Amino acid sequence: MSPLPFDPTSQPFSRVDWTGTRAAGLARLEAFLPAAGTAYTRTRNSDLGPDDRSNVSALSPWLARRLITEEEVVSRVMASHGFVKAEKFIQEVYWRSYWKGWLEMRPQVLARFNQDRLALNQLVGEDHELAQRLSRAKTGETGIACFDTWVRELTTLGWLHNHARMWFASIWIFTLELPWQLGADFFFKHLLDADVASNTLSWRWVAGLHTKGKHYVARASNIETHTSARFNPVGQLSESALPLNEPFLEMGPGTLPTGEILFEERVGLLLHGDDLHPESLPLTAKVMGAGLLRLPEIGPAAGAKNKFLRRAEEDACTRLEHAFNVDAPLLSSLEDALNWALGLGMREIATPYAPVGPIAWHLADLKRALAVHSVRLVRLRRPWDSRTWPLATGGFFKLKEKLPNLVRDLGHL
Ligand SMILES: Cc1cc2nc3c(=O)[nH]c(=O)nc-3n(C[C@H](O)[C@H](O)[C@H](O)COP(=O)(O)OP(=O)(O)OC[C@H]3O[C@@H](n4cnc5c(N)ncnc54)[C@H](O)[C@@H]3O)c2cc1C
């Protein structure tokens, strides 16, 4: 294992304050900043355990909800380290955008995942043996100490190190021989950073379905090396399993839906959990009223994930009120959102563009319902997304090649 550049236990930011506010995200970014350069490149692959997150940013929960934006993070890191020293970290931030763009151009992959997930959940109701194996995995009773520990971390804290996620998914698929779709579903219900594209496509990648025939195999020796020997599941893992196959699925890419523009000078603004930083939206009109669409919980209502999300939504409402000097109610259903929008008397409601997934589907329903009343729901895509998503037609390499240009466009090179 590569040596750590510092004594992690002496770092004040070893433990993460997982509070769902923009202020907590910004504080984490500032604390992590000194470690985002060469130290990150050298040490990021080690999972040092939940008490020591000094070698990674742990910013994903705030980035996934856009409590802080990718642009802010890259800009701060560029200002501190410059491109050469921070390239690895910056690349990782762009992986999030790559996955989003990739899925946006291939929504059929998500549709297939959802069909499979529902069918498999039904099967679990009928197949007692599968139900038992699944239950042992989800309650951390497999007897594989590292896996059982990560289950507890996931279901209590709602966060796992990237390498632990890879090992976890690999063990789930190839050692426990459970359907990957149910593993992705389990992650999505518990992760503070639950993100449709990063999660679904990373599980597919581990299974060998993203890059055909290339799967990720968790090895005991690798786990031992990168967990500071906290775990060594020697003899417990299936290390020679073959990649998964699936029935034919058109992999596109299809066309990217176009971003929309506002025509009116006065609009309503509707936020949602995919983008909680209204202050930096590309708005060209005065906001006359605002609201936040709060959708039903996915995952345990009282779990860490939904606690984080609810706090994040309240935080966003408070900032909405300050930024635009309007009341910003929480709207708990599409019907509430429709009534709120019609009550404003505006001809246009602006909303951040939601990438393919549950929020986008709800917004599509709302758009149709508003259209009946001649009100346009205008989905505003951020320049960051418009620049990165079209680069996700193939592998990550195409986007990676363009990184210097992308960063230069942000005004940093
Ligand atoms: C099976 C599996 C499921 C995953 N599910 C999710 C998910 O639901 N939500 C999610 O945000 N990430 C997911 N990831 C990606 C990655 O594990 C997390 O983004 C990362 O662990 C977050 O830790 P960090 O903030 O310390 O990242 P850092 O290493 O500090 O990287 C900085 C930022 O870059 C982005 N990033 C880093 N690695 C990745 C990656 N591999 N893919 C996409 N973005 C990345 C994140 O926004 C992260 O905050 C998954 C990975 C795997 C293998």
| Ions, cofactors and other bound molecules | flavin-adenine dinucleotide
Number of strands: 5
Chain oligomer state: single chain
Low-confidence stretches: 1-9
Plain-language structure description:
By secondary structure, the protein is of the alpha/beta class. It folds into three domains: 8-104 and 389-409, Serine Threonine Protein Phosphatase 5, Tetratricopeptide repeat (Alpha Horseshoe), CATH 1.25.40; 109-226, DNA Cyclobutane Dipyrimidine Photolyase, subunit A, domain 3 (Orthogonal Bundle), CATH 1.10.579.10; 266-380, 3-Layer(aba) Sandwich (Rossmann fold). It has 17 helices and five strands. It has helices at residues 22-32, 38-43, 60-64, 70-104, 107-126, 128-138, 145-156, 162-175, 180-190, 196-207, 220-226, 304-324, 334-344, 358-371, 383-388, 396-401, 403-409, and strands at residues 266-272, 286-293, 330-331, 348-352, 376-380. Strand 2 (286-293), helix 12 and strand 3 form a beta-alpha-beta unit. The longest helix has 35 residues, at 70-104. It is globular. The chain starts with 21 loop residues before the first helix and ends with a helix. Mean pLDDT is 95; it is low at 1-9. The protein binds flavin-adenine dinucleotide.
SSE arrangement:
Layout: H1 22-32, H2 38-43, H3 60-64, H4 70-104, H5 107-126, H6 128-138, H7 145-156, H8 162-175, H9 180-190, H10 196-207, H11 220-226, E1 266-272, E2 286-293, H12 304-324, E3 330-331, H13 334-344, E4 348-352, H14 358-371, E5 376-380, H15 383-388, H16 396-401, H17 403-409
Parallel strand pairs: 1-2, 1-4, 2-3, 4-5
Helix pairs in contact: 4-10, 5-6, 8-10, 9-10, 13-14
The chain binds flavin-adenine dinucleotide.
Flavin-adenine dinucleotide (FAD) binds at residues 44, 56-60, 63-64, 92-93, 95-96, 99, 162, 165-166, 169, 187, 191, 193-195, 198-199, 202-203, 206.
